[in-house]
Records
---
Amino acid sequence: MPSSLQIAQAASMRPIAEIGAEIGLLPEELELYGPYKAKISLDVLKRLAGRPNGHEILITAITPTPLGEGKTTTTIGLAQGLNRIGVRTAVAIRQPSLGPVFGIKGGAAGGGYSQIVPMEDFNLHLTGDNHAVSAAHNLASAFLDNHLHHGNALGIEPHTISWPHVVDISDRALRHAVIGLGSAEDGVPRETEWQISVASEVMAILALATDIHDLRARFGRIVVARTRDDRPVTLEDLKVAGAMTVLMRDAIKPNLLQTLEGGPAFVHAGPFANIAHGNSSVLADRVALKLVDAVCTEAGFGADMGAQKFMDIKCRLGGIRPSVAVVVATIRALKMHGGVGRIVAGKPLDPALEVEDPEAVRRGAANLAKQIENMRLYDVPVVAAINAFPTDTASEVAAVREVALAAGASDAVVATHFPDGGAGAEDLARSVWAVAKSGGTSADGSSGAPDFRFLYPDEMPLAEKIETIATRIYGADGVDFGAGVLKTLERIESDGHRSLPICMAKTHLSLSTDPTKKGRPTGFRVPVRDARLFAGAGFVTAYCGDMRTMPGLPSRPGGEGVDIDADGNVVGLF
C-alpha cells in the first residue's frame, strides 16, 4: 500500500468552488486560496439563519497510545462512508500545529484512503490562521512590555503577569526565559515563558467565538496580570484588543478543503486537548450544520479529554448539541491497556501486540467501557468504532463488541476505512446514522440528543466542578489541591467568574494523571497544582500534575525526513 503522502499526492482533487456550490455556498461566500482551498464568509450564517441544523456526530476515542487510535482517520472515513450511503456529510476538524508536524506525531490530515487534501497545505501553513494567532498573541505581549517600559501607568505588579509569548514550533529552550536584558532602552527585565501557539488563549477564543464582534469582546476580557492593589488587568486596559481583532479578521473565517473522495471538509482552529479544550471551531460547525445533513467532528485525545471539554465547554458556550458520539478503539491499543506489550512512538511495534489474545483485549477494554460510560453521562448515545488492523481476529473483535454493548453502546462496528476509504466505513455509517436519527430533535426543534445534559451546572463552585470531572469522568477517589490553589479559585469567583466551565490540563495517556497507569485505574487521586482564569475564552484551567504548555522535540524529530525532491514536491510528511 502506498504511503499516506503518496496517496494524497496522487489524488484527483475537485475544484473547491465546485464543492462549495454543491453544498449550497454562493460564489461570493467563498474566498479562494488557489483552486483547492478557500475561506468561507460568515455572511452565510445570516443567509441561512432560518434553516434547521443537521446532525452533529462527535468522534472521540479510548485513552490513546502515543501512536493514536486513528480518530482523525475515522472521522474522515465515517464522513466518506455517510456520503456513500446518501447522507450529505461534511468533516469539521482542527488545523494541526507545526510543532507536532515536525516532532513525533506528524501531520493530522488522517491517513491511507481517509484523508483531507491537499495534505501538504493542510499540515503546513494552510491559509495562515495559526500565524495570525501567533501575531495577535505576540502583539499583546509587546504592548504589555511596552506599557511597563513607558512608566507602568496601570500599576501592574510584574510578578503577577500571566501572559506568555508564543511560537508554533516545539522549542523546549523557550519554556523559561528572562527578557529585557541589555540597556534601559531594551525594556524591563523580567521572567517569562514561551508556549506553543495552539496553547494560546487567542487560539481557544478563535475556536469558541461566534462572530467577529464576539471575538473582539473576548480579546478585551483577557486578563494578563494584576495591579499592585490586586485588580485584574485586561487587554482592553492595554488598548490592544482592537488591533488583535484586525489581525484575526480573516482567520476567523473557516477554511474549506476536501476529503480524498471529494466531500467537504471544514478546517478551523487547533487548540490542544491536554492543555486547552481541543476542538475545532464553533463557527465551522455552525456553518457546516446549516449546509449538510451530518457533520463529523472530532475532539482531541480520549473521551475523558477533548470530548468532555466538547460537551462542557464547546457545547455550553457554542449552543451545539451532538446527536451521537463515536468512540474509536484499536485492538492493539486495548491489548496494551490489558497489560500486553508496549507502544513507543518511533519504535517498531511490539510483536506481542500482533498475537491473538482475546483475554488481554477484554481486560484492556475496561478503558473503552469507561469512555463509553463517560459519553453516556451526557445522555448522548454511543457507537463504538473498531479501527481495524490486518492482525485483528474474530475472537478479539467479539470481545470488544461484548464489552462495548455491556457498557451502554448502541452498537460496535468494525471499520476498514484506512485501506478501503469510505467503502470500508459504510457499515459504521449505517449504524451511526440510524442512532443519530433515532434521537429525533431537541425541545427547541434543533437536531441533537433530546435528553442532552451537562456534567455540572453553571452555579456549582469551581472547586466542586474540578472534583466532579475528576471523580465522574476519570474515576478518581478525589482531588488534592496544591498550596494556594483553593485561594486562587476563590479569587476567580470573587472577580465574578464562578459560572465558567473548567478546562482540565492533564496527561492524555491515562485516565489518571500518571501516564503509566493504563486500562481503567482505580484508587488514585488527582493533584491540582495550579488554576488560571481564561476570561476571554470563558473557562478556568486546572493544571494537573506536570503538564507543559511548550512541547519539546524528540531525539530524532520527524522533520528530519521532510524535504523537497528533484521535481519540487514535498517528501517525508506523515
---
Amino acid sequence: MKQNTLIKISKSLSVVALLMCITACTDLEISSTGTSTLEPAFEGLDAGESSSQVDGMYNNIRGYIGDQANTFALSEVTTDALLIPTRGSDWGDNGIWRQLHQHSWTPDHAFITTAWNQWNQLQLGASEVLDPRSTPDGPTESQAYFLRALGMYMILDNFGQVPFRDTTVDPTIDPDVFTGIDAVDFIEADLNAAISTLPSASAGGDNVRGTAEAAKYLLAKLLLNKHVYTNSSPDASDMTRVVNLVDEIAGAGFGAQAGYFDIFRESSDIETIWYVNTGVGNRIFNGLHYNSTTAGGGGWNGFSTLAEYYDLFEGDMNNNRYDAAGNAIDGQEERRGGVPPSGDMAGTEGSNVGFGFLIGQQYGIDGTPLQDRAGAPLAFTREFTNAATGAPSLVDNGEVSGIRMIKYNPRYGGFTEHEIFFRYADAHLMKAEAIMRGGSSGDTPLGLVNQLRALRNANGNTPPLASLSEQDLLDERGRELYMEFWRRNDLIRFGQYTRDWEFKEASAIGNTDKHVFPIPASQVILNPNLTQNPGY
C-alpha cells in the first residue's frame, strides 16, 4: 500500500521550519534523540485508497459541522447572534467563549487553531487524491475537487491566506501560501471542475455529499464575497454569475419551502442543497436549561442571543408565545417561532420545547410552569446580568439570563443526523444581494425579498417592504439564517462585523483587523511563507 505523507517533528526549530504547516495532517511525535524522522514520501493513492480517503474526509466533516465549538463558534459566537455567558461555574472555560463574543481572541485560541487544522487537513487529503500519481475513479476525483475547494474556501474566509501543500514536491519544502485573487482563482478552478463532473442533486433527495448544485452554491458564495477577499469593489460580472448560478440551482428543482421549522427536520424538503449527516444535539441542547426537557438528558444552559438580534423580528419585545393550537399570539412572524403552553397530547418527549426564540416562562409537557434548579420560575430574560448585583455582565449570570434560540427541536429526536449546511433560501437572498451589487437579472432585490417574506408570513400587520436598503437585506438574512454558520460572513460583507454591540471590547470596535482570525502561532513558525495577520 502506498504511504501518505506523515511527518514527525522534533523540538528543533531549525528542523520544524522546514516541515509541513498542517498539523492536523501531521503525526506529532518527538523522538528520544531529538531528531526528526520522515516516513516514506507520498507516492499516490490507488482507486480503493482514494475512495476510502474521500469517505474519511466526509466522515471528518461530520465533526467539523456538528461541533458547537471551532467553526460554528467562529461563525456565530463572534457575532451579535450568539454569546455564552458564564453562569456560576458553568461555561467559564477560562474565558474561551467570552473572548469570541468580545473580539478579544489571541493566536493561541483553541477554537481558532482547531478550525485551521481541520480545514487544512481537508484540503491536503483532497490534494492527495488529486495528485497525478493517484488513480481515483471519476466520481471520487469529482468529490475531491469539491472537498478541496470547500477546505480552501473556509480557510480563506476565516484567515485570509491559504497554505497549499503541493503533494508532488519534496515534503521538506514549505507550502505555498495563496491570498487574494490567487486563492479565489484556485478555489474557483476546483469548483468548476467539480461542477462539470459531479452528479446533479435531487431536490428533496438524500443530498449528503457534494453535487453539482452544492458546488454551484459554494461558487456563488465565493463570488459574492470575492471583493472582500481581494480588497476591491464588487464586480458586476461576478454578481451576474452569482445570479445565474442561483437560477441554475432553482432550475434543478430547489426552492424556498413553506413551513419554516419543518425544513430543520430529518424529512426531505426542497430547500436543502447539502446537509451533513451529523447529530444536531449541539444545536438543540446547548441553549436549553437543564430543566427544559428530559429529552437527551436535558439542556446545557449556555448559548443565548442578544436582545438586539431578537428585536430584528416583528412582535412583542417581551413575549414570544404560541397558543395551544400553535398559533403566534404576540405579533411575531413565523421565523421567530414561539413558546407553547404545554406539550402535545401524546406527551412526546421534548414537545413542550418551543421553536425559534425562547423568552419568558417555559412550560412542561402537562402545562406546568417550569422552574430553574433553585425553584424560581424558568423564565428566560432579555438581559445578561450579574445574579448578585443586577448589573449587565457576561460573568456570574443566573440560570435564566438570555433569550435562547432553537431550530432543530428535540420533539423530532435529540440527535437526529441531519444538519443543513447549504440551503436554497440563502442562495435566494444571495441572488437578491448580487443584483443589488450590480448583477443583471429580470428580478429585483425588493421583489425577491418580499417573495421570501410572504412565504415566511413575515409581514404581520404591515404591507410588504416598499423599498430595500443594504441594512434591510442584512436584517433579512439575519432573520432567515440564524445559527446556520453565515452570520460572521454576512456582517463582514455588509461592513458591520466591527460595529459596537453589547459586551464587545472597546478596542475591537471599528478594528478591521478582526475581519480575519490570527494564524495559529505555531503555524507561522512551521511555515515561513505565512505572515501573521495584522493586529496579532
---
Amino acid sequence: MDVSMLETENAATQAIRPSALEMPPPGAPDIDIARAVTPRPILRIAEELLGLTGDDVVPYGHYKAKIALGQIAALQQRPRGKLVLVTATNPTPAGEGKTTTSVGLNDGLNRIGVRSAVCLREPSLGPCFGMKGGAAGGGRAQIIPMEDINLHFNGDFHAITSAHNLLAAILDNHLHWGNALDIDTRRIWWRRVLDMNDRALRNIAIGFGGPAHGMPRETGFDITAASEIMAILCLSEDLSDLQRRLGNIVVAHARDGSPVTARDLEANGAMAALLRDALAPNLVQSLEHFPAFVHGGPFGNIAHGCNSVIATRTALALNDVVVTEAGFGADLGAEKFLDIKCRQSGLRPDAAVLVSTVRALKMHGGAPKKELGIPDCAALRRGADNLARHIANLRRFGLNPLVAINRYPTDTGEECATLAAICEELGVRAVTADHWTLGGEGAEALAEAVTEALAGDSPEVELLYEDSLPLAEKLRTVATSIYGAADIALSDSVARQLKRFEALGYGHFPVCIAKTQYSFSSDPEARGAPTGHVLPVREARLAGGAGFVVAVCGDVMMMPGLPRDLAAERIGLDEAGWITGLA
C-alpha cells in the first residue's frame, strides 16, 4: 500500500470526522481531548518511528494496524531494548493512573530523545460499560483512536470469545453424539465466556427441551478477560505454540479420572484458525504520535494481567526502551508479571516504576473520598504503609523501584513534598509527574529519572518460588511474602484438587491468584497494609494450556456484575453520529 494515499482521508471519512480542535482545558472529558488531536496515518508511524515498511504492517483502516506475524520472527532476532515495568499501589476509587503514567512516560522518553514504545493491554467492553471505564489512558496522556480502542478495537476479544465458545460447543456436541471419550459430566470444567459484565449468567443450566437439545447440565459464563484462551494468546510465542497450547486445555475429566483436552476433542486446530489474526500485535499511537502496542487483555485481579509476550518482544526489537504495565497493584500485577509472564517467556524488567497518588494514599490512610481535595499530610503518612509494602515486595524480586507521583490538580506542594520525603525515608527516589495535565512535557523529569536508572547494570531479578515447590506452598509463599498474610485456608476439596493437579503432572506450574485488587487481603475494605490475615482459597482451576493454576480467593467473581451507577447510561451518539460519554 502506498503510504502517501493515507495522508488524505477518503471522502466518506472526511464527511464525518471533525477538523482538529483547539486542545480542551485540563479536566475536560477524555474523549473530547482525544478528538482534539488528528491521528497521523499509522503507516507513517510504523515507517518513521519503528522502521517498518511494506509487508511488515497490516493496516486496519488509517489509524490502526497489526504487525504482520510473518515478520515478527525475523524482528525478534535483533538485540532487544530495555524493559521498564510500570506497576502501582493498590487501587482506590480515587484512582492511581497506571495506564496514564505508562503513556505519559513513553511520551516523555520520546520527547527527550529516547526511541521508546509503550505496551498495554486491550480494554474489555465489560468495564467500559460498567464502572471502571476504558483503558486508553487519561487527560493528555492517552492513546488514540480512543473510541476504537475501547469499543471492539481490531476484533481480538471477539476472536477469543468465539474460539472459547467453539470449544464449549464442540464439547457439548461430543456429549450429544455418544460421549466416546467417556467424559464425566459432573466434572466438566470448561464454561462459556462473554465480553460483558453479566451476573445473571454466572451459573446457568443448559440442554433442556428434550434429547434433541443436548444433555442437561449445569455450567455458566466467565468474562472473556478471564478466559484461559486470553492467557494463552498473551503467553504464546507464535502460531505453532498457540495451537499446541490450545490443545493442552483441560476441559473435563473422564470417568477414570484422566484429563480430557481440547486436543482429544480435535478442537484446537479450528480454534487456532479463529485466533490466527488475533495473535498479531496491534499498533496505535499516543496523542503525541508516539507508538503504542496494545495487545491482549487479561484482568489483573482474576487473570495474569499482562499484555502479550509477542507484543512486548516485538516492541523490544524495534526500540531502545519499552514501557509496559502490569494490572492493578504490584501485589497482583507485578507478582504475576514476574512469576508467570517472565517465568514462561524469559523476559526480565531492567527497571520498575511504582505509580501512586497523594489522593490514593490519603484514602489508604483513612481519608473519606469526599475529603480528598482537603490537604491532609497526616492521612498521607498513614496511607504510605501501602506504598512501603509494595516497595518491599518489589525488592523481594531484586527490583528497587522509582516512585512516580501521578499529580492531580488538587495536590498541594506540601503534600507532594511529604510524599517525596516518605520515599526518601524508604530508600527510593520519587519524581512528581504532571502528564495528565501536560502530556509528555509533564513526564520529562520522570523520563530522565528512568533513563538514569537504565544506565546502570540491569538488576538480577529473582522469581518468588521455584517450579518444584508444591502448589499449596506456592500459594502460601505468595500470601505470606507478598500479601502479609499469616497463612492460607484451603478447603478439603481445594486441597484434593491441588494434589490431583500435581498427580497429573501439573505441579510445576506457577500459581495465578484471583482476588480483590483493592487490598492485600481478601477483604476489599482492608486498606493500607494489613497483616496477619488468612487468605481463603475457595476454588482451584487448572489452566493446562496457559501453564498455570488459578486460585480463586474470597468473594472475587470470574464474571463481574454491573454497578448501580453504570457508565453505559451516559454513553450514546450525538446528531452527527459521534460517540458521547465514553470515559
---
Amino acid sequence: MKKTILIVILFVLISCTKEIQKSDKKEDRYNFLFITNEDISPYLSFYGDSTAYTPNLDKLAKSSLIFDNAFTPVGVCSPSRSCIATGMFPISIGTHNMRTGQDYTGWGNRKYEDIGLSDPAGNKVIQYSVVVPPEVKVFTQFLREVGYYCTNRFKTDMQFATPMTAFDENSPTAHYKNRESGQPFFSIFNSMTTHESKIWVYANDSLRVDPKKVKLPAYFPDNPIVRTDVARNYSNIEIFDAEVGKLLKELEENGLLDKTIIFYFSDHGGPLPRGKRAIYDSGLKAPFMIRFPKGMHKGRTDQLISFADIAPTVLSLAGVKPPEYMQGVAFAGKYKEKENKYVYGSRDRFDEIYDKVRSIRNKDYLLVKNYYTETPRYLDIEYRKKIPMMRELLKLRKKKYLNKTQLMWFESPIPEYELYDVNKDPEQVYNLSDKKEYQGIMKEMAVKLDSFLKAVDDKGNIPEGEFLKQMWPNLKQPITQTPKIKLLSNRYIIKTFTPGSDLVYKIDTVKTKLEERDHWKLYKEPVTVQKDKYLHVRSVRIGYTDSEEVIIEM
C-alpha cells in the first residue's frame, strides 16, 4: 500500500513539473498565491478534526495536494517567517530569537530602542534588525528578477526590516491586480484572525462553536474557562474560512484560478498554551496544502516538509533554479530534490525569557534536546498570560488541581533528552527517553541532530548580545554605501559597493526624497533616460540601514 502511494506521489510531482514548465515566456508562467494565517495546528476537517465548519478550506482541499507532515523550524511567527522568506534555518542566519524588533507590518520603518534586556552572559541586548549573510535574500527577489509582480498583504515580521528588493507592494492594500497586463504574480494574503491575541481580543464576541462539544487534549484540564478558549480558537478558524472564500472567489472572477498555484499554510502551531512556542507537534506542525492549476494533482502525502523548503520549491515551480546557499530543498518543480528524512526544530529566546532547545523528527519519532534543564517547558511570558485559560492553568497549578500529564509542562528540572513515538503518542506526553529498548533510536537521532547543528553553524551557541555586536558594531546599525550613477549612451549604469547589497530605483517627476516604498523597481540593467523626470536610487542590504537616496535629473 505504501509503495503504491509513493508511486502516485512521484507521478503527481513529475507531472506537475512538466505542466508548470511548459513555457519560459513571462506571460505563460503560472502565478502564485499564498493564503496564510496565524497560529493554527491542523485543526481542520481534512486532517480529521471537524469541530470548525470550514466549507471554503474544505473545497480547496478537495482539489489540492495535502501534506500530512509539514513543520516549521520554530513555533512562533518571526523566526518562522524568516525561514519561509529565505529558505534558511533561523539558527543558521541569526533570526532564531523572538523577537528582535517591531517590524510587524510594512517595510520596517522603526526606531531601535533599548529594551532593558541582557542575555544570560550579561551582554546588553537592544532591538535590532538581523544582518543575515551577504548572499541570503528574500526569495521573492529572484521572482522579481524574472518578471514576477510580488506583493504582500500585510504582515512581514521576519526579524529584519523587509528589504525594498522583496516586493513591488508591501502594505495593507497590496494586490496582484496592480500588475501590468499579462505579468505573472506572486502574492501573499495573510490573516491575523486566528492569532493568539484574538483569544482575548474577541473574548466578548459570540461563539460559533459550542464549548461543550470541543475535544480537549490530555494536557488540558476540563473546565469552562479552558473549553471557552478552545471554542474561541475554533470560532476564529471559522471566521478565517470566510476570508479564504473571498480570496478564492476574487481569483476565480478574475479568470485566474486555473492559472495560479495556491499555497495554504499557517505560520506554526496553534495559539493555546503548549501549542505556540512549543517544540512538540503542537507548536511546529502546521496545515499545508497546494492547489495546482485545474486541481490536477489532488491527493495527500506523508512526505516530511520543512518550511525551509517553501522558498526553493516556489522558485523551482517558477522554473528558477534555487541558489546553492538555500538550506531547504525543492519538493516539486523543475529542480525537485530528494525527500527529507528528518525535519529540525529550535527554541531560543521568546520575548523576555531565554531558553535553548533543539529537536529532530522523522515519521516515527521526535527527539528533543534540552540545554537549560533547570528551565521548565513552560516559559512565564507576560504576553501569553493575557489568554484567560493560561491564567486559569496557573491558578490550578498553584492549588494542585492538575494531574501528572497536565503538570508535565510546568515541571522542573527536565531531562536532557525527550523521545516520543509520534504515531502512538500524537500529543507527546509519554517520554520514552529512559526506556532501555529505545536507547538505540535515541542515540542514532542524537547523532543526526548534532551533525545538523554543526552543518548549519547553530548561532544559538553565541550569546545574543555578543552576536548582536558582531552584526552591529558598538550597537550601531551598519549603513549601506551610497550608490554611484554613471550616464553612458543615454543609459544610466548604477553600482553598489556594500557586499551583499542590491539596488532599487524609481523614475518620478518629484525631485525630493520619496517616502513611499511601494513600486520601486529592482535594478537589473542600465536605465534609459526619460526627459523631465528624476531618477531615485537606493542601495539596500538586509539588516543594514538603507543608503542615502541618490536623486538625479534625467
